[in-house]
């Protein structure tokens, strides 16, 4: 039975650990010590306390561990490469990595650099932390798994079956690059704005914000076309991307986006992973991206302001 290391005990990392641990050997790894007694609140409000094997990166370096079957990297996008480097000497170079990051920054870099198989996952499972010993499973949704080189479909199918057996609904797909870019497009239209204005997703429907949502989508739609990425429902054009964004806004109206959670906690945001690839693509294809650049600059200013207070 393949064991699973989960590197990054954030919301998705802990949700994944809670899902897998009844059936599989799981080690949850972070930079600082966490209680082994961890609490999960289900979407129905039920609370479960499970004992998880939680270790720090330092402990992993000082105590020999059996090689894992999978290493899931569930850190923020900007921390993924450093997190991998912190344990790389302790795992065989043939180990399968699974990347759970938002955006499209860490995935191509690690896929190119790591000698073993690299799978990418994109999920609509909703979760948020309630301190060092609790995570709330806020909403269920599908997870898609694949690899950017289309060389590891059997591995993706095996992992998807494992996750589904653990009630973490997953499917293997051959178009993970498309799906990552599709999610990136939606995230770019929602996350930066709710983080800047510190509002829940549904408030973007208000007139004070909606015009800017439409301006961002206009730029993003042109970039998606240049990259050969179509909206997931097979429709085409700017109107299809805007309809998708509004659908996600409505479906997640009461959600607090991860970027907003970062701002509230005065942490660096994932603006580089979400806005960065879009701005780079716009530059490469000589497309306008004034709205995306403005969002990036405003978020940078916000991060600098609260970082200077800490």
From TrEMBL:
<dbReference type="GO" id="GO:0050661">
    <property type="term" value="F:NADP binding"/>
</dbReference>
<dbReference type="InterPro" id="IPR013328">
    <property type="entry name" value="6PGD_dom2"/>
</dbReference>
<dbReference type="GO" id="GO:0005737">
    <property type="term" value="C:cytoplasm"/>
</dbReference>
<dbReference type="InterPro" id="IPR013752">
    <property type="entry name" value="KPA_reductase"/>
</dbReference>
<dbReference type="Pfam" id="PF08546">
    <property type="entry name" value="ApbA_C"/>
</dbReference>
<dbReference type="InterPro" id="IPR013332">
    <property type="entry name" value="KPR_N"/>
</dbReference>
<keyword id="KW-0560">Oxidoreductase</keyword>
<protein>
    <recommendedName>
        <fullName>2-dehydropantoate 2-reductase</fullName>
        <ecNumber>1.1.1.169</ecNumber>
    </recommendedName>
</protein>
<keyword id="KW-0521">NADP</keyword>
<comment type="similarity">
    <text>Belongs to the ketopantoate reductase family.</text>
</comment>
<dbReference type="GO" id="GO:0015940">
    <property type="term" value="P:pantothenate biosynthetic process"/>
</dbReference>
<dbReference type="InterPro" id="IPR008927">
    <property type="entry name" value="6-PGluconate_DH-like_C_sf"/>
</dbReference>
<feature type="domain" description="Ketopantoate reductase C-terminal">
    <location>
        <begin position="175"/>
        <end position="299"/>
    </location>
</feature>
<dbReference type="InterPro" id="IPR050838">
    <property type="entry name" value="Ketopantoate_reductase"/>
</dbReference>
<dbReference type="GO" id="GO:0008677">
    <property type="term" value="F:2-dehydropantoate 2-reductase activity"/>
</dbReference>
<dbReference type="InterPro" id="IPR036291">
    <property type="entry name" value="NAD(P)-bd_dom_sf"/>
</dbReference>
<comment type="function">
    <text>Catalyzes the NADPH-dependent reduction of ketopantoate into pantoic acid.</text>
</comment>
<dbReference type="Pfam" id="PF02558">
    <property type="entry name" value="ApbA"/>
</dbReference>
<dbReference type="InterPro" id="IPR003710">
    <property type="entry name" value="ApbA"/>
</dbReference>
<keyword id="KW-0566">Pantothenate biosynthesis</keyword>
<feature type="domain" description="Ketopantoate reductase N-terminal">
    <location>
        <begin position="6"/>
        <end position="149"/>
    </location>
</feature>
<comment type="pathway">
    <text>Cofactor biosynthesis; (R)-pantothenate biosynthesis; (R)-pantoate from 3-methyl-2-oxobutanoate: step 2/2.</text>
</comment>
């Amino acid at each position: 039975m393949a064991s699973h290391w989960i590197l990054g005990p954030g919301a998705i990392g802990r949700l994944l650990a809670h899902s897998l641990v009844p059936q599989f050997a799981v080690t949850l790894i972070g930079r600082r010590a966490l209680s082994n007694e961890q609490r999960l609140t289900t979407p129905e409000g039920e609370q479960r306390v499970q004992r998880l094997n939680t270790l720090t990166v330092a402990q992993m370096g000082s105590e020999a561990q059996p090689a894992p079957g999978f290493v899931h990297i569930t850190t923020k996008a900007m921390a993924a490469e450093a997190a991998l480097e912190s344990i790389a000497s302790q795992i065989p170079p043939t180990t399968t990595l699974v990347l759970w990051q938002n955006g499209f920054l860490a995935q191509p870099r690690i896929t190119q650099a790591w000698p073993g198989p690299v799978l990418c996952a994109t999920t609509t499972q909703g979760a948020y932390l309630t301190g060092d010993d609790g995570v709330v499973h806020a909403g269920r949704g599908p997870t898609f798994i694949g690899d950017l080189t289309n060389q590891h479909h059997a591995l993706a199918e095996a992992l998807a079956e494992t996750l589904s057996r653990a009630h973490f609904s997953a499917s293997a797909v051959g178009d993970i690059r498309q799906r990552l870019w599709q999610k990136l497009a939606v995230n770019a239209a929602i996350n930066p704005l709710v983080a800047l204005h510190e509002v829940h997703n549904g408030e973007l429907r208000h007139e004070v914000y909606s015009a800017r949502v439409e301006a961002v989508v206009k730029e993003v739609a042109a970039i998606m076309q240049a990259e050969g990425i179509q909206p997931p429902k097979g429709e085409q054009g700017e109107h299809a991307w805007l309809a998708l964004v509004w659908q996600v806004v409505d479906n997640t109206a009461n959600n607090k986006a991860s970027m907003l959670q970062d701002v509230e906690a005065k942490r660096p945001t994932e603006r580089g992973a979400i806005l960065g690839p879009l701005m780079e693509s716009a530059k490469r294809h000589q497309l306008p991206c004034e709205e995306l650049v403005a969002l990036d600059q405003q978020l940078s200013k916000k991060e600098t302001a609260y970082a200077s207070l800490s």
